[in-house]
Design brief:
Elements (H helix, E strand, L loop, with lengths): L1 H5 L4 H4 L3 H16 L2 H21 L3 H25 L1 H10 L1 H5 L3
Amino acid sequence: MATYFALFRFEPWVLLSPRQRRFVRRHCIHLLLTYPPVAIIRNLLLVSALISVMLLLRGWAMFVAFFLVIFVLSDLIDMIVVMGRRQEIGRYIYEKRAEIEAVV
């Protein structure tokens, strides 16, 4: 879902079919999100947010905050990474156009 919002109205992305978007997501965006420095920073941010939630809150508020941190913050970080790499994603779509069009 974060990919959808980050690439909303991005011209190369809009022109792709759902199967082609899945191909680009699998072969380009997934690699960007699992790139070791990005994964390390994401995990450090999540762990630090979870530790701060544990130290500051108790009871049901802690469980709600855990849910928000795990699901919302991780998607937000992914969305920020994808938004920062839009040019690289566009370049990948342009360079691999023949391979992407064969996915149809």
